[in-house]
Amino acid sequence: MKSSPLDILLIEDDENDVFFMRRAMTKASLAPPIHVAVNGQDALDYLRGAGKYADRATYRLPRCIFLDLKLPFVHGFEVLSWIRDQPALKSMPVLVLTSSPEEKDRQRALQLGAAAYLVKPATAQMLTEALQTLNENLSALSEREADYH
Amino acid sequence: MNRPDHANDAKPPLDRHALIQAHFLAAIVESSDDAIITKDLDGVITSWNKGAEKIFGYSASEVIGKAVAILIPPERENEEPNILSRLRRGECIDHYETVRRHKDGSLLDISLTVSPVRDADGIVIGASKVARDITQRKRVQAELLMARDQLARSNQELEHRVAERTASLQQAVTQMEEFSYSVSHDLRSPIRAMKGFALAALEDHGAQLNQEVRDYLDRIIRSGSRMERLIHDVLTYSRLARNEINLVPVAIDKLVPDIVQQYPAMQPPRAQIFVRHPLQPVIGHEPSLTQAISNLLANAVKFVRPGVTPAVNVWTEAQSAHVRLWIQDNGIGIKPEYQSRLFGMFERIHQDPGYDGTGIGLAIVRKSVERMGGCVGVNSDGEHGSSFWVELPASGKAQ
């Protein structure tokens, strides 16, 4: 996994949580480029390539998204629904990373197609396991797709 | 019509029996509370009993020979010709409710029955009128109608108020949910940061810090963890208090082992929980019951003297329509004087840091059991462990 280039879009408004995410990634010996969107609208702009995010060489489309739920302007669930409605982003893995341990939120996130529901704080072990599962699923998916061709 | 054989004969003299009969009938007429009046086909009054005097205020001498129209208010003067023409045709007027006028001019509600009076040849020669004063009845009816209207209006008002209250309650519940959501996210966030940075300082720079600083950081982390547990428990309590619950049969014989299975602290070698199967099913809400039993079992294995392995007995007792679930431990017990406070919010009986808790666990137990229509209690002498019980309606079957 260390060798695979993995751009991550972290949608998070709390700079402390951004710090803990980066730290946990480092602790897990993962060093993916992390782009941060600081609110829901910022995330939509990034994914659309709108405004300052038009330069895709700098702001690459991520391999996966870590999404907080309680975000200013556009709520995390709305961001998740929007992503699922975009044909180009339909298969984009979205991992919800939230402070809410509420079962109701977990159920809703999974219904909206979240690949995982993680409760903060992000830890090295949590990220390693989540990304490992994600990679396995993505590999299995590409193998299945290869079989069809 | 058959005519009597003696129709054309001269009137026979009344015999004694007939006389008695006639007096008897006259007495009945006189003593009646109803007005009994006779009139001829021109509407002229020919007899007038005491009841009529009482109801209409006229004495017999005042009205006999006068037109019955004196009793009829002007706005109803058309009624009499109509009644007379029906009588001439031999028809009866039965319980006709109308209005008549008293001597003093006041109006009376009456029920009128008018029957034709025939002569010996069967020819209608007049009419007998029985008038009953129904003013009182009409008044009661009117009052009843008013009361019914009033009731309908009150009902409507009440429904309106209930709808208003329900809406305001709904709004309060929504606000409460928003508040809880906010507590869940916004209060946790700075605590997570404090704990996280203290932990990062220890992990990344602990070697360069002296013992005192490391101890301070440890204290920050422990306080943060405690605050997180408090938030968790307060949210659990508020959720239990406001969520709607659906009561169904619950198989606690399966539920208790499932709970034990989830917590290593309730399993050997750390603890022994002995379940006396079968535990009888109850009517409850499984998530609330799981919460209550988990809290009680967690307490049972936590509050023991140092060096003692927790040993907990769990059994049920049938009590007529209820089932009492017992959880008996070998712990430090609760002195009787503290037991009344035990199930309150933020009540902690043991200050020893070894028995860490938020003081909300048993309040959660009580709230969840009460929401299911049950009750909770404890028996303990403060020395030889505690026996907590939960009583819920019994169920014949469990899902």
What proportion of the residues of chain A is helical, as a percent range?
40-55%
CATH fold annotation of chain A: Rossmann fold
Q: How far apart, in Å, are the first and last alpha carbons of chain A?
A: 26 Å
Residues in helices of chain B, as a percent range? 40-55%
Q: Which strand order does the major sheet of chain B show?
A: 2-1-5-4-3
Low-confidence stretches of chain B: 1-7
> For this structure, what is the CATH homologous superfamily of the domain at 245-393 in chain B?
Histidine kinase-like ATPase, C-terminal domain
Distance between the termini of chain B: 83 Å
Please state the structural category of chain B.
alpha+beta
Number of strands of chain B: 12
Number of helices of chain B: 9
* CATH H-tier superfamily of chain A: Response regulator
Note the run of SSEs of chain B as H and E.
HEEHHHEEEHHEHEEHEEHEE
Number of helices of chain A: 5
Q: What can be said about the biggest beta sheet of chain A?
A: 5 strands, parallel
Q: What is the radius of gyration of chain A?
A: 15 Å
List SSEs of chain A in N-to-C order. Answer: EHEHEHEHEH
Structure description:
The complex is a heterodimer of chains A (149) and B (399). Chain A is of the alpha/beta class and 149 residues long. Chain A starts with 7 loop residues before the first strand and ends with a helix. Chain A has a single domain (8-148), classed as Response regulator (Rossmann fold, 3-Layer(aba) Sandwich), CATH 3.40.50.2300. The relative contact order of chain A is 0.17. Chain A has a 5-stranded parallel sheet. Helix content of chain A is 44%, strand content 14%. With 399 residues, chain B is of the alpha+beta class. Among the domains of chain B are: 16-133, Beta-Lactamase (2-Layer Sandwich); 245-393, Heat Shock Protein 90, CATH 3.30.565.10. Chain B is 45% helix and 20% strand. Chain B contains 9 helices and 12 strands. Chain B has helices spanning 16-31, 50-56, 60-63, 79-88, 135-205, 211-242, 252-262, 286-302, 361-371, and strands at residues 35-40, 45-48, 93-101, 107-118, 124-133, 248-250, 272-275, 282-284, 311-319, 322-328, 375-380, 386-393. In chain B, the strands form 3 sheets. Chain B has a 5-stranded antiparallel sheet, sandwiched between helices. Chain B has a 5-stranded mixed sheet with strand order 7-9-10-12-11, covered by helices on one side. A two-stranded antiparallel ribbon of chain B has the order 6-8. In chain B, a hairpin with a 5-residue loop joins strand 4 (107-118) and strand 5 (124-133). In chain B, helix 6 (211-242) runs parallel beside helix 9 (361-371). Chain B is elongated. Mean pLDDT of chain B is 87; it is low at 1-7. Chain A binds chain B through residues 14, 16-17, 20, 23, 69-70, 98-102, 120-121, and chain B through 181, 184-186, 188-189, 192-193, 195-197, 200, 232.
